[in-house]
Amino acid sequence: MSLPSVYGDKLAEKLTLLNDFFQLLPNFFQLLPTSPNFQFLPTPSSFPCFSLFFPSSAASPCVSRAWPGSFSCRGGSGRGLENREQTGGSRFSTHFLMAIFDHVYELLNTIDASQCFFDIHINYDLTKGYLDLVVTYVSLVLLLARAEERRLLLGLYQCAHEMSHGASEPSFPRLAQMVLEYEHPLKKLPEEFGPHTKAVSSALLSLRAPFLRRCRDAELWRQEQLLSLLGPAGDMLSPVTSDSMACEYLSLEVMERWIIRECCHCLSVPNPPVRVPKPSGQGPQPFLGRVPKSCFYPRPLERMFAQTLDEPSMLRFAIAFPLLCAHFSRCQHPMCPEEYPQLEAAALGLCHKFLEELARVGSGCVLDACAEQHNLSQQLLPKHCAATISRARVKKTPKQPPRKGDPQRDKPGTESHRRDRTLTTNHPRDGSGQPTLTAIYTDWYLEALLRQASTGAVLLSPALQAFTTVPREEQPPFSAAEFSDVSEMRALAELIGPYGMRFLSENLMWHVGSQVTELKKLVVENMDTLVQLRCCRAEQRPALLPRLSSAENVLKRMTIIGEILSFRAMAQQGLREVFSQHCPFLMGPIECLADVVTPDTDIQVTLSIFELASAAGVPCEVDPALVTALAGHRTEAMSPEEDYKVSCLLLVFVAVSLPLLAADPASLYNPELDGHNNNVHCLAKAIVQLSAALFTVHSKNIETHLKEFLLLASSSLLQLAQEPDKARLRNQDSIVLLLHLVGTWGHLGGTPGTPGDTWGDT
């Protein structure tokens, strides 16, 4: 919105007069506590804006006419209060102070109502005056809040005014209310400047270009021909004739004060990033404009310094703390020059303390290094080589057992033995027989993560694509998500490589094979009952179910298998992403090769292709590692026909046992996890992948057996609805969701390239 020239000039004039008045206030505040005979005489000669604010006083022929509510600051012999008629001069009053604040409020509201546009490049004087006014106003409010005994001083002033004039100060209630409102200025200022956010923001955003240009180092200026004396003569005059030349005279300190004061206090932006030049000349870097204020908080600064010394990775940055003390002088406010000696003493004290501690830590490191070098040199002394020579002489003699108390000494140089990184990551043991990272991570995930998952302390969350920890009071906190999310699986694949991931997969499949072996034993124990359950009608099934033993054990072991297979799928996904990043030219052909496999393809060719795809992390309809593990765990005493029969009855056992889960309170479906509270949702993956692998080993139809499983499981759950005991129906809906997962992952319907097809159909 464009303002009329006369109206705009009036705003600019009032803005200039207010800034001129505020320029003299620091001198008054400095003289007020130090001069006992000080009298504040706001005459037209001392304040050009006096006639604007108080036209009646300016028009009076007697300049020394007292203001209403004035209070003498003159000190005398035993007299702290004097009558205004005796002093004959005007005194500083709350009426005058509140009038100044009223003019500031009125001007800011008028500017917002007029929709003035502020840009440092277009209207330099108006924008600079507006920013100066806001910063000065904020500084005065903060200065008032820093006075610790402000309430006491105001109370004394009110009492003195009543004693000298017989009436209270008219503006005292307003001033007292303002002091109460600004008890916490950091909260009050953003609320007060809420209506002025648009004007303040536009003015601050216009500083971006000159501020960033000012923060560039000399090398960038030379590259942009800003400091070159070899350029054309005509280009040297172009900055002078530009409209934004006035911006170049703004000091960096002024712009930083505008940004920090107005962003932190008016716009409620904590720690606004201010850019300052790097000492190394590598361009601007982010720097918190409020860092020098750390001098007012020495204890937190010392704690951070101690934490830096305790963290080895942060030791190299410890020198920043003594360097920070050099910036404490920037905390001095123009209105408080008496703080400089205290700031200087605090800076020197902290700097000396930090340097002493750094010297102590550095000397300790040097002494430790010297001691280590001394020990290494001691190992080379002749007295230590006698044992080696003696062992070499009697090498052919029978080895004598070491004497008790005789320590085994390492040969000099063993500490410099280097290990091959390939052996360290891709194999379970290195050249010296020590466990590698692959073995360490494999053991940890099996013994720590998956073992806790089997006990219910860790749950699989499909929504988070990670394992999560169930909080328990009696156990220390352990965040399973920090070790099993997508990024951690990528990092694991990056660290141990494809051979390490294959070793991890083989160990996981070995545990799955062990669980399947135990499940087959339970099936053999209940063979007769399971055969009858497979062939009988639905109404005959309730009479046969009580004959089954260890049904809960079967469900528990199948859940453990599902947890292991789910973790392996997450690890394979991480391997696939890493492999795609490192070898994208190989991932494409491998994925295409896996897609061309059809049910008519020979089973051995199919398994070979799936093994190649699985090594790259590509998911397959039939897991070749699981097929290999199950084939290796087949019982020698059992014929292939009997083993196939046991595999079929295993699915029957699981199907007729599912209704038992409905009575478990932990089987409730949790939408936040997208799973059940006892990990029974892992049963779906176990049923689908285990069926595909088992019947691939026996060259049987996978789809037929999965349909049989769903038929038995669904009929068992339907019969559960006829139970008179409602406690057994508690989580029936949650178990029905489990069957939905089996049908979804099984892809029943026979689309090409899915487990629903007749792989290995005979």
Task: Characterize the structure shown.
InterPro entries: Nck-associated_protein-1. This is NCK associated protein 1 like. This protein starts with a helix and ends in a 16-residue tail after the last helix. Helix content is 59%, strand content 3%. Strand 3 and strand 4 form a beta hairpin. The protein has four domains: 202 residues, no CATH class; 61 residues, no CATH class; 89 residues; 221 residues, no CATH class. The C terminus is likely disordered. The chain is mainly α. The longest helix has 40 residues. It has 34 helices and six strands. The strands form three sheets. Strands 1-2 form a two-stranded antiparallel sheet. Strands 3-4 form a two-stranded antiparallel sheet. Strands 5-6 form a two-stranded antiparallel ribbon.
Quick structural overview:
This is NCK associated protein 1 like. Pfam families: Nckap1. This protein has four domains: 5-206, no CATH class; 207-230 and 253-289, no CATH class; 297-385; 516-569 and 580-746, no CATH class.
What overall form do the CA principal axes indicate? elongated
Distinct helical segment count: 34
Number of strands: 6
Mean pLDDT: 75
How large, in whole angstroms, is the Cα Rg? 42 Å
Residue windows where pLDDT falls under 50 for at least 5 positions: 29-92, 270-288, 748-762
Give the biggest sheet.
2 strands, antiparallel
N-C termini distance:
85 Å
**Structural class estimated from helices and strands:** mainly alpha
Q: Considering DSSP H and I runs of 4 or more, what fraction of the residues is helical?
A: 55-70%
The largest sheet has its strands arranged as 1-2
State the domain count.
4
Strand content: under 5%
